[in-house]
Amino acid sequence: MADVGRPGFIWAAPATLFFGAFAIVPLIMVVVLSFMSWDGIGDPEFTGFDNWRRVFDDPVMIKSIWLSLLLTALGVLLQTPLSIMLGVWAAGNQKNRAVLSAVYFVPLLLSATAVSVVWRALLDPNFGVPAEATWLFGDGNLFGEQATAIGVLAFVSTWQFTPFHTLIYQGAARAIPQVLYQAAEIDGAGRYRQFFHVTLPQLRNAVMTSMILMVVGGLTTFETVLILTQGGPGTDTTISAYYMYEEAFKSFDYGAGATVALVLVLAATAISLIMVRLSGYDKMRSTTEGL
């Protein structure tokens, strides 16, 4: 039988062309636009680093970076343990597991816009749940203070995206060889010791994949802020993606908007590479080595 060998470049050509047309080319255009002044109507004018200086001289921009990092960190801290526990549970054979998993994964089917609209209505200070439970929510205006507004954003993001990361951990947990658990049982390890000494180490690659997706998603989230808080109160929830929207589509300063967009791309890429390097994930060591 003839050795077919590896597929040629022609097999990757469609995906390469698609990625180039809808990712690389727009990114190059954003880089060029970040050095231009353009209001969306006339011809762009080259201004050098003026956009970069002006953006980073704006205290709202600096504040938005810290807010983006804060919301991203909250997302990772809240979603990671929840996703791991739910994913490991969903990988088992518990009674009614399939039905409960299907119900829990419903938020995953909804768009971020739909989820934000629903929670905006539910948390409305005049007609929503807080208005009926003043004993718990006080005046009911969860969007009136920075701490509660950020808490709402973190909660809504966790409610929507935890099911997605749960799927990652569910698949990874089902791939763990049962022989590891059998060996642990022979050694006298109970359920909790098996979880911490067998399950978690085997999930390390899935954890890193999930966390990178959380970081990229957290830094680029936009619809939730636009619908729930509009960057308020004041600029207390104006994250970088929303700041980019205001500069480009409200102030019609597309050069500044492109600059912020490029900053987000560079930040997400840098953080992801640092996480991969520090975790050793780039070596892709097998979690079943020796089996």
Automatic annotation (TrEMBL):
- Where does the signal sequence lie? none
Biological source species? Streptomyces synnematoformans
PROSITE patterns, from UniProt? ABC_TM1
Domain ABC transmembrane type-1 intervals: 65-275
Q: Where is the protein localized?
A: Cell membrane
Bilayer disposition of the protein: Multi-pass membrane protein
Q: Protein name, please?
A: Sugar ABC transporter permease
Keyword annotations: Cell membrane, Membrane, Transmembrane, Transmembrane helix, Transport
Q: Which residue spans traverse the membrane?
A: 12-36, 65-90, 102-122, 142-161, 206-228, 254-276
Q: Which family does it belong to?
A: Belongs to the binding-protein-dependent transport system permease family.
Please indicate if the UniProt record lists Transmembrane as a keyword: yes
Task: Report the Pfam families cross-referenced here.
Answer: BPD_transp_1
Q: Which domain of life is it from?
A: Bacteria
Annotated InterPro entries: ABC_transporter_permease (IPR051393), MetI-like (IPR000515), MetI-like_sf (IPR035906)
